[in-house]
Amino acid sequence: MKNIYIIIIAIVLLVTVNELSAQTIIDTGSVTNNRVYLSAGIYPATMLSFGYEHKFDISFLKRPVSVFAEVGVSITNFKGSELRFGGILPVFEKRNFKIINTLNVSAGILSTKNFDSKRSAIADEVAIGFYREASFIAITAGYKKIYLNKIEHTDYYRETYHEDAVDSNKGTGGIFMFGLIGGITIEKKYDILLVLKLPFTEKFNSYDSSPVHLNLMIGYSL
User: What pTM, to 2 d.p., does this model score?
Assistant: First the structure.
């Protein structure tokens, strides 16, 4: 019964957070080799994502490496989906202090009333902090580069706003993100991760539409 209450509380927390960002993966500090997780994000629309993470040892690196895959679907009026694949590598460890690098590639589609978009991107993030078996806290810095962003205007947009609108088929630059991340593990099975990030353009201008990203992730160790 106690486990059921924990799951209910976690789901309530996930639903009540308004602005989410599914860019940070569950902590690699524990000894768990397999984990499933649930997250939500606004990349580029509000999405609900389900992922799987697997940890294994690479002998010549003398440290564990995690790989993950996740699929997300839109939970707003927009129609969208995204696939993401990546890896997590602790590049430096000394007792509880760690520097962890996360690299991922993604591809997604988004359909709105005015346009349809298909895009691919690559992102890298470094987390520096203190990781214990049941809790951790770290500062993060990351960069996401959009290499392809094919935008096609809909018939509605052309008929209503701009008949000669030109479709786009090129990259749209990158995004810098700086933030704070923390998490806890309950009963060695349930992970709750909270992330606060500030996004900036490549010219370090803030995003007016979404100046702060708050990310909540729920994980379960198999």
Answer: 0.74
